[in-house]
Amino acid sequence: MKKLPIGIQSFVNIRTEADYYYVDKTQQVAALVDKGKYFFLSRPRRFGKSLFLDTLRQAFLGRKELFNGLFLENNWNWEKKYPVIYISFGAGVHRSRDELQETMLVILKQHAKDYGVSLENSYIKDRFFELIQQIVKKYNQQVVVLIDEYDKPILDQIDKPEIAIEIREELKNFYSVIKDADQFLKFVFITGVSKFSKVSLFSGLNNLLDITIDPDNATICGYTHEEMCNIFAERLEGVDLEQVRLWYNGYNFLGDKVYNPFDILLFLVHYEFRNYWFETGSPSFLIKLIEKHKYPVIQLEKVETSETLLGSFDVEKIELTTLLWQTGYLTIKNIETILNVRSYELGYPNMEVKRSLTECILHFLTHAATDSTKYRIALYKTLVKLDLDGLRNIFHAFFASIPHQWYDSSTVSEYEAFYVSVFYCYFTALGFDVRPEEPTNHGRLDMAVLHENRVFIFEFKVVELDKTAATALEQIKRKKYWEKYLSPSSFLGEDRGEREIYIIGIEFSKTDRNIVNYEWERIR
Fold first, then answer.
1. Per-residue pLDDT band at 159 (split at 50, 70, 90)
2. pLDDT tens string 33-61
């Protein structure tokens, strides 16, 4: 049985160190070179960007022996070899512009040494241009420039705008060399997590083709379901593939949906459905933005955005939707074009991201990770036992446990959606089928939770904000929200036969900071 290439970003190592599994992406290498010269690709972390970049490097260096049995072996001109300048800003954290400059100088010095050329200019930008020129002069061949983690120095300091802007301007100056060096360049590929506007970071490089959202390159990184099943067939015997798909598939870049490779490789080690990818990074900056904008967490299920907003990111104006999409916490669910204007519907890519992110947000909302875990376990047992009175006691105890100082220091509890968001996060983090703000023939219900053959319909009300006489439960009855769940199709197309339906009305008080009225009934 072959080895799993966990954490290996070197194409050379995968092809020479041991008998590793490899999903052949070399057809995309050939297609890119045939298609153009300047490319940009944005993908979330741990998606195989560095491995693809190294694959490009080895192809241009003419190392045919590494491609035995792959598509490129018989679809590449191996007689021509090109010098490659490979720049990665992935190592370490750049805490200032000075540290970034030191990294740049080290990279340029190492390339000059490797290619046996001398650099005389003092300024970094000029040394980069000189490096390209000198290599072309010595080898009489155009140069390939590959840049990995192009944006990481900025993202390292994204919560410190002044430093981030200084770093951005230094990178902008560095990257400007690419435009002026056009005649000396064979091919350029730039990759990272975020997508900064051309104006802010790639000024003048108008011929840089963005293939981030492109059907032809949708699977350039990541595994399709077919690739996963074919390459890892021997390790997938007896595995519930639909559960694998539910947990880890779903990233959509306008082609076949893909898996994050890191998730699949770790799953094939442990065979447990866990949050492998999510645990490799922290969404703390995103959660700070959620608090800052008082963003209703339940709306992450369905986010409407424009094409412009989806592809624009800058230090001075950080859009939450843009960041959630580019970092992989949301993905494209649907596209609509009206009057030649394209809009996107975004949502969670899969169960791992949905459960993990909502759990992380829950810890922030409650300010107590240990307590929220305790209440979550109790909530699951209570719902399974159908103890709906116990459900009220759990949430009442939870809200009562939040220190008053936290309410005083946080702005997140000032908006109505705070209370609903807590309920939503609890149920979603447990893996239940949670459907917030579902449309019905009589209006939009607040939240439905589906589990096995039971449906729980919730209506929430903050008494200081809603002055109507009707209780939350009475509103469910009056609008008959449960009727849409009478049909078998409401369980994701799965007919579970006769089902139980429960309606629950919950009312909060901002003054009391807790539940002040809780009623429920069984409808069927």
1. confident
2. 999 999 999 999 999 999 999 999 999 99
Tokens at 106, concatenated:
């080290």
| Phi, psi dihedrals of residue 117, rounded to the nearest 5° | -125, 160
Record the tokens describing residue 280, joined without a space.
């490799």
Q: Which residues contact 414 (CB under 8 A, 6 or more apart)?
A: 294
Tokens (6 digits) for 126: 């000029």
> What is the spatial distance between Cα 514 and Cα 397, in angstroms, rounded to a whole number?
9
What are 98's two structure tokens?
A: 């000075």
| Assessment of whether the complete model's pTM goes beyond 0.85 | yes
Distance between CA atoms of residues 466 and 446, nearest Å: 14
Q: Are strands 209-210 and 185-192 parallel, antiparallel or unpaired?
A: unpaired
Q: How far apart are CA 174 and CA 168, in angstroms?
A: 10
Q: How many residues does the chain have?
A: 524
Structure tokens at 428: 């979603």
**What pLDDT, on a 0 to 100 scale, did the predictor assign at position 30?**
96
Q: Convert the pLDDT of each residue in 356-413 to its tens digit.
A: 998 888 877 766 656 667 888 888 999 889 999 999 998 888 888 766 554 555 554 5
Alpha carbon distances (Å) from 228 to 23, 24, 224, 231, 245: 8, 11, 6, 6, 10
The whole-angstrom separation of Cα 126 and Cα 163 is: 23
- What is the distance between the alpha carbons of residues 483 and 460, in angstroms, rounded to a whole number? 19
List the end-to-end C-alpha distance of the chain, in Å, as a whole number: 53
**Burial track 306-329 (b if 16+ CB lie within 10 A, e otherwise):** eeeebbbbbbeebbbbbbbbbbbb
Q: Give phi and psi for 191, each to the nearest 5.
A: -140, 155
In terms of Cβ atoms closer than 10 Å to its own Cβ (0-12, 13-18, 19+), residue 186 is: middle
**pLDDT tens-digit series, residues 501-515:** 999 999 988 888 889
Q: CB of 167 within 8 A of CB of 155?
A: no
pLDDT digits (tens, 9 = 90+) for 200-245: 777 667 778 999 999 999 999 999 999 999 999 999 999 999 999 9
Cβ–Cβ < 8 Å for 360, 348:
no
CB atoms within 10 A of CB 270: 9
- Which amino acid does the sequence have at 55? T
pLDDT over threshold 60, residue 415: no
Alpha carbons 170 and 124: distance in angstroms, whole number: 10
pLDDT of residue 493: 46
* Interstrand relation of 454-462 and 447-451 (parallel, antiparallel or unpaired): antiparallel
Query: What per-residue confidence (pLDDT) applies to 291?
Result: 75
DSSP string, 237-251: TT--HHHHHHHH--B
User: In three state form, how does the secondary structure of 279-318 look?
Assistant: HHCCCHHHHHHHHHCCCCHHHHHCEEEEHHHHCCECCCCC
Q: State both tokens at 359.
A: 């759990």
